[in-house]
Amino acid sequence: MRKDSLADKNLDENLIEDHRNCPIRDLLSRLGDKWSMLVIVSLAKSDNNCLRFSELMREVNGISQRMLSSTLRQFERDGIVTRQLYPEVPPRVEYTLTERGKDFLVPVKSLVDWMANEWPNIEISRQNYDNKNPSL
User: Fold this and answer.
1) Pick from 68, 81, 79: which is nearest to 33 by CA?
2) What is the phi/psi pair of residue 96, to 5°?
3) I need a labelling partner for 68 at 20 to 30 A (CA). Which of 3, 23, 81, 133 fits?
4) Per-residue model confidence (pLDDT) at position 26
């Protein structure tokens, strides 16, 4: 095992052993879903980390209005984004990354960097697996 692995970080063993009751499991599940990273990255790449709802719909290709609303509502609840409603006709709603949301970009960037570095080897592993298991 590498020196910087989870086992070497002196994590609370109960947290690892009892992962089914882990208090952060819900957040990890949400952040790892199909759309969350795309929404966060879209906000991060925008001016002032802020986009209107309709702009997010265009940026996150394929997301439904309902799923975007749900994702943003959960992010607002977790303090990752703020929602600003402007009393205009038609109503204008903007979503902005909070400091917590901006802080979350640090591990996201690390994960993306890891994936970019490992992608060629992952492709080779997949090819090797598929060659050994042609029925899948």
Assistant:
1) 68
2) -130, 140
3) 23
4) 77
